[in-house]
Amino acid sequence: MSQFRVVLINLNEWQKWIAKLGESRVEEVVSDYMNTACAEMVVKMQDQLGEYQGARGPFGPWEPLKPETIARKKNGDTPLLEEGDIYASIQYFDISPVKKMIGATDTKAAWMEYGVPLRNVPARPFVRPIVWMGVEDMKKGIRKALVRALVEAKYSEGGGPL
C-alpha cells in the first residue's frame, strides 16, 4: 500500500492538550475520533467504486473505460468494480493510538490509484481524494473531541462549566 502523510495536529498543539488532559487521555480521545472518521472514509471509498468520479482538488476526473474493457467486464461500464477485489480490500489499520493508515491492500488498487502509464492504464484515484477532502474536517473533529474531553474532565472534578 503506498502512503502519503497527513498531519492533523501540530506538536505545539499536541503538547498543549497533553498538559491539559494528560497524554493517555489525549491519545484515547484522538484514537476514538480517528477510528470513527477512518471507518467513515472506508465507506466513502467503497461507495465511489463503479461510478465515474469528477475532479476533486488536485485530482483529475476519471477517464472513461475503453470499449474493449467494458465488453470484457461482467458488470459492464463500472470502473474499479470487478468481482469486489478492490472493494473488499479497502480498510484502515491502527499503527498507534494516534496514527492510522487507510487504503486498499489489493495490488490492483495501487495500479488504479496511480495508473500504469506503460500499460496505458490511467490513474483513477479513489483513496487520496477522500483523504484530501476529509483532512480539514478531521482536524476540526479532533479539536472538538479534545474540547469535549476537557469539559467532561472539568465537570467530573466538580469545576462546572468552563
Spatial shape: elongated
Parts with pLDDT < 50 across at least 5 consecutive residues: none
Quaternary class:
single chain
| Cα distance spanning the termini | 44 Å
Outline the biggest β-sheet: 2 strands, antiparallel
N-to-C order of helices and strands: HHHHEEHH
- Computed over alpha carbons, the radius of gyration is 20 Å
Helix content: 40-55%
> Could you tell me the strand content as a percent range?
5-15%
H/I helix tally: 6
The order of strands across the largest sheet is 1-2
Mean pLDDT: 88
Secondary-structure-based class equals mainly alpha
Detailed description of the structure:
- With 162 residues, the chain is mainly α.
- The protein has one domain (11-156).
- It contains six helices and two strands, in the order ααααββαα.
- The chain has helices at residues 11-21, 23-48, 67-72, 85-89, 107-114, 128-156, and strands at 90-96, 99-104.
- The protein has a two-stranded antiparallel sheet.
- A hairpin with a 2-residue loop joins β1 and β2 (99-104).
- It is elongated.
Outline the fold blueprint:
Layout: H1 11-21, H2 23-48, H3 67-72, H4 85-89, E1 90-96, E2 99-104, H5 107-114, H6 128-156
Antiparallel strand pairs: 1-2
Search tags:
single chain, 162 residues, mainly alpha, 6 helices, 52% helix, 8% strand
Would you summarize the structure shown here?
This protein has 6 helices and 2 strands.
